[in-house]
Amino acid sequence: MGKRFVILGSGESGVGAALLAKQKGYDVFVSDAGSLKENYRNELQTAAIDFEEGSHSEERILAADEVMKSPGIPEKNEMVKKIRANGIDIISEIELAYRFKGNSKIIAVTGSNGKTTTTALTYHICEKGGLNCALVGNIGYSFARQVAEDPKPLYVAEISSFQLDDIKTFRPDIAILTNITEDHLDRYDYKFENYIRSKFSIAANQQANDHFIYCADDEVTMKYMKQFNIQSNPLPISMRNELTKGAFIKDGDMYVRTGEDFVSMSIYDFALKGKHNQYNTMAACVAGYIMDIRKEKIREAVQDFQGLEHRMEHVSTIRGVEFINDSKATNVNSTWYALESMTKPTILIIGGIDKGNDYSLMEDMVKEKVKAIICLGVDNRKIHAAFEKNVSTIVDTASAAEAVQTAFHFASKGDVVLLSPACASFDLFKNYEDRGNQFKKAVREL
After folding, report:
1. Distance CA 11, CA 16 (A)
2. What is the pTM of this model?
3. Dihedral of CA 370/374/380/385: which sign?
4. For an engineered disulfide with 397, which of 11, 230, 273, 402 has Cβ 3.0 to 4.6 Å away?
5. Chain segment 171-183, per-residue pLDDT in tens
6. Structural domains present in the chain
7. Per-residue DSSP letters for 183-197?
């Protein structure tokens, strides 16, 4: 028999891992305390993979040689504690995928903000440059599923801190750390240092011929950089200083340099607008440049990149009022960046499940840009307390439709209604996509 391999959780990463582990001869058992989605249940049945739902069979799980836990399951979960107490190794899905990736290369992107956009743009640049690659991780298919079903010579992976928490040997050829801001502290014992360590582990196994792209303007990254003994080639990006390698922006032009040669282009040609997106674009361009993609192709990709759904997505303009869906903004910093790029008076729709948010970080930005706040959550007391001094109109709503109608009521021609919640969505919605889709539907029904 093969290695007894237990997978906790049956979402995209759990099922992807199950398919790969089975293919590689492991004796696989999937256990989910909740219920399986029908498509995943069918996949496991078709692949003849043993699974259970609705509970965990403790004896069987604790007989495992190795356990993979889905990124959504926290360390404080009782079953996880028992597995740890029994000294059984726990790995993440990206660790499993890495084991079987063969000679393929990996560009891995993490960070508190901008990682989805940076990953998607990097993939677009690589595709444009003619590389045969796949977009995996938190975006698209799980990494393990891609390795099992359609292996590629290059993987561009978006990776969350939760996925990095249980890596052992995972080592990307190019690692990108966009920035580090307080997020998910509920999962890290409310210790910011634990979360920082998790983010930096993307570069922990890198060697001298690998590359590490990071933001030299991000204070947290720079403050902690010295504590981690990073062996790979450092390639910083900056808007504040001219750099000899990496990328920087000066007087409206971006310069990318990884060796002798460099590429430059005007930031006014970037498809992605807003200062935060200039950082994302720099990081993606540096990665493309390391992959030896021709300058013209990088330029072209940056100019014709289509933004992502639920990320600063223009929905519609109705009677002179523009509606923007930024449902993917699930923390305060994301919303801060969204507001920073606003050029018109803004009605902000905010709220949901608060992950320990410090709204004072947004105070100045709200004072400067926001004329009304529409709360979209079950408990909005913290939002009222944070902003009632600066915004005279703060209204509670209980659905996307109500939020959109209320916002439209307070909007005048030339205003923008921005859904950028700064919170998780699980109180009123299934997830941020569901929230964004309901918002868009409500806008279309005005």
Report:
1. 8
2. 0.81
3. positive
4. 402
5. 999 999 999 988 7
6. 4-91 (3.40.50.720), 95-304 (3.40.1190.10), 313-444 (3.90.190.20)
7. --GGGTTT-HHHHHH
